[in-house]
Write a structure and sequence with these properties.
The complex is a heterodimer of chains A (342) and B (294). Chain A is mainly alpha-helical. Chain A has one domain: ABC transporter involved in vitamin B12 uptake, BtuC. Helix content of chain A is 75%, strand content 1%. Chain A has a two-stranded antiparallel sheet. The mean pLDDT of chain A is 80. In chain B, helix 1 packs antiparallel against helix 10. The radius of gyration of chain B is 19 Å and the shape is globular. The chains are: A mainly alpha (342), B mainly alpha (294). Chains A and B meet through helix 4, helix 5, helix 6, helix 12 and helix 14 of A and helix 4, helix 9 and helix 11 of B.
Amino acid sequence: MSRFRIPVGFAVLACAVAVAPFLVSNYHTYQLAFVGLYLVALVGLDILTGFTGQISLGHGAFMGIGAYTTTILVVDHGWRDLWTIPLAGVVAGVIGLAFGLPATRFAGPYLALATFAIPLSFIGIVKRFPSFTGGNVGKNLPQLHSEFGWHVNPSIWFYVVCWVVALVMFPVAYLIVRGRFGRALRAVRDSEIAATANGVSTAAVKTAAFGISAFYCGIAGSLYAIGITYVNPDTFPIDLSILLLVGIVLGGAGSLYGMVFGALFVEFIRISWGPGILDLVSKAHHLDTHAPGSGLVVYGVVLLLVLYIAPAGAAGLVRQLLAIVSRLRSKKDTSLSDPSLV
Amino acid sequence: MQQFFQQLVSGLADGAIFGSLALALVLIYKATEVINFAQGEMAMFTTYISWSLITHHGFSFWEAFFATLLIAFVGGVLLQRTLIRPLERASVLTTVMATIALLVIFNGLAAWIWSPQLQFFPSPFPTTSWVIGGVHISKQDLGTFGVTIGCVFVLWLFFRFTKLGLAMRAGALNPAAARLLGVRTSWLLALGWGFAAALGAVSGMMVAPTVFLTPNMMQAVLIYAFAAAVLGGLESPIGAVVGGLALGVMLNMLGTYVHPVTSELRLPVALGVLLVVLLIKPAGLFGRVVVRRV
């Protein structure tokens, strides 16, 4: 049973993705497309944070780099938007490597503090070179439209693009964290000293993980720009970087499937759940809950609660549930698969 | 030449603020082994409290200043006792995430309670300046410099010469041994949070008159402080102060003499300094190379 858990899980995810647009409205399809692109970003960040144990508070900026790469190529150089997606990933990935090379010399929390500077610096640089980036105003991309002679609603087209990318990038991440390299990542996370003693070059591994996660975020950012059809410096604030990290923790750091929950959270906390919770609170206490900042308070409190109640996130809860189920079903099942990969 | 000295003076004034917050980071990290990402937001929040005391409750600046220090200290201790202590045995990721949650909550609360609009924060120092050899030395800069360096000095005295300070350092260095010797390490961590909150409140109230009061005002300052701490060597208190002053002067000089560096590039330059230091001399100017043993 355990051996099939991963392919079965992936098949279930793919089926759910294929069926979803037939069940919900176009608007919700559009929202679910963003879940797909957040999944790409979270899976990438999870390779760095969940598997390698390096906390980054700056990956929203790598999404920004991907988004600006796509926008500048499409608007100023007439590229077709789809072809810019891999290139956006590469640009973000290379910048990520360049940043990771010195920054991964930090241990633990210091890396997070250094990465905190990335989103703020990114906004500064974007504003400094307006002839290249559009400055404060930003740039507008062409409207979403379906391609390859396919006539569907733009929302559905965007949904297909995002989820095709996500369903390609997801197994790739699985391959990355599974083999020898993946073991090196986890060794660095669990004990840098032990990893070094066993011949793992911790700096190289951390830098590579940083580059890979930046690549994933660049791709997600490219999709983001295509989806919202504009970019400006305020599109990628520091809040986005924090939100990505929150998604990792809620989904369950070190679990790839958990990122699906994380991505759902990241997309819906801001749009529907947050305001929903606030409305409940406002009915009880007559507070002005549409004031600025109230949404931040809600997701900060949600994050704290999760840290206390379920520190392993949604994936941890599911894992406990599966453990109970499999214990009930049979006792001969000796699991060989690594539980941390599920 | 006059311009050069002018920039030197304003650079030192900026640098004093970076240096004091950098020192708060270093001292608290040395004493508690926790990096509090909400440090900047707590400073911002307590600055809002003092602003509210001054503008809505008729406090004078210095009454509000000391009242806020007290509130910040008590608040810091309470936060550690209620929210951080249950996570004592949790992983680094969980602890860091908890402080990030606090960052988000304080940022949101400040905007919610006081609106995200820019507020004018009064300065306790006169806006006039002395002119020495054509160089304007503003009394506000000098006052800021004095207050921050004074607070830092008091904190250093505390850690160096009091029994409690010694206990805090012992608790950070070797919690198990300190506990065996009768040091109540858990409460010392709470004290550490209290001091950090109070020192943060000082830097917040000193920086607010120049950058104005907004919920995001401390984010950039925190980055500068961190770059300063790295430049000086993360483990070195003196390094933090010198690093802060050097960074302040460097940013002002670059802004004046290197034209492509505009105010938007101040933060990227600080980030660049941080990365270059790490590449060339990871231990910083004053740090020791730490040898890890198994």
